[in-house]
Amino acid sequence: MADITRRFGWRHLRSAPTAHIRHHKRGQLAHDGQGLSFWYRSLSAALSEVPVDDRELAMAFHARTADFQDVTVQATVTYRISDPAEAANRLDFSVDPDTGSWRGAPLEQIATLLTETAQQHTLDVLARTPLAAALVDGVASVRDRVATGLAAEPRLPATGIDVVAVRVVAIRPEAEVERALRTPAREQIQQEADRATYERRAVAVERERAIAENELASQIELARREEQLVDQRGTNARREAEEKAAADGVRTEAEAARKVRLARAEAEAARETGAARAEAQAAWLRVHGEVAPATLHALAATRLAENLPRIESLTLSPDVLTGLLAKLGRPEGGAGA
Q1: How far is CA 322 from CA 62, 167, 304, 333, in A?
Q2: Torsions phi, psi of 273, nearest 5?
């Protein structure tokens, strides 16, 4: 919308670069162009503002396919007004000279023209297309048909409108039909998932079986080695017992031989000791046999005295001494001496 200001009964208009301004004064064209700025009197001015930028028109409408299924088509048409003078002559782009706002709704008229034209060509295409084909290839076919139909529409060039691009965003069926159409694909996906699950379980079972077989083989090998170990331990025990028995036999024989030698040595020593004692006793008896009785009595007294308690002093009367000497077989005169 143009920017209009007031100064002392005059109006000043300043337009945007994307707006084409046509100013008629008393039926004559005074200003015509884009991005204009000028003074005018509102009582004698007739203004038109035509946008010349690219505009996007979003549209959505219903259509019916060849198998009588309702679908919703979402599309966008990009257009521009290439001939502002022709558009201003065919449509009401006049603006209020005081406020700068449009007196009518020209863009809505253009939107209605484009929407109805696009809808007409879309209905023509989808009416001959089944729902499944429309959902798969309908976007491209509808886009091409709408672009061709808009380019061939005679009212658009006559109004100064050029269609820049046509885009079909989506063609969607009703919610229940869409769910029904999704069901086979979902079932197939679920079947694939189930098959993958079964295959994964089969692989897991196969791996578990392989693991169990490996464990069983390991246990068998372990049992076999344990059997070998038991046999080896038995062999070692028998060998150790045999070696121990042989060692005990050798040790026993050695001990017996040592004891025999010791007994023989002791017997020999005993014989020699006995012979020596016998010889000593015979010599002792022989010596005592050759000695006088008095000497033997003196030796006996000496031995007796050795075994008696210690006597510090002894007093003998002459009578006792005489009797003792008489018993020893000595004369009394010798005793006095």
Answers
A1: 181, 178, 20, 10
A2: -65, -40
> Which residues 6+ apart lie within 8 Å of 294 measured at CB?
328, 329, 330
pLDDT in tens, 28-75: 888 888 888 888 888 888 888 999 999 999 999 898 889 888 999 999
Instruction: Give the number of other CB atoms < 10 A from CB of residue 50.
Output: 20
Encoded tokens for 94 = 């006049």
Cα separation, 136 vs 225, in Å, equals: 70
Instruction: Give the pLDDT confidence of 233-275 residue by residue, as tens digits.
Output: 888 888 888 888 888 888 888 888 888 888 888 888 888 887 8
Buried b (16+ CB within 10 A) or exposed e, 124-137: ebbeebebeebbee
Of 24, 21, 26, 27, the C-alpha closest to 3 is: 21
Measured CA to CA, the distance from residue 334 to residue 26 in angstroms comes to 213
Give the SS3 label for residue 228.
helix
Question: pTM of the prediction?
Answer: 0.54
> What are the C-alpha distances in Å from 82 to residues 19, 51, 104, 323?
12, 10, 20, 192
> Could you tell me the CA-to-CA distances from 201 to 81, 192, 207 in Å, in that order?
66, 14, 10
Which residue stretches of 38-80 are H helix? none
Strand order across the beta sheet in which 37-40 lies = 3-7, 10-14, 37-40
Q: Hey, what are 60's tokens?
A: 């959505």
* pLDDT value for 291: 67
What is the rounded distance in angstroms from the CA atom of residue 305 to the CA atom of residue 293? 18
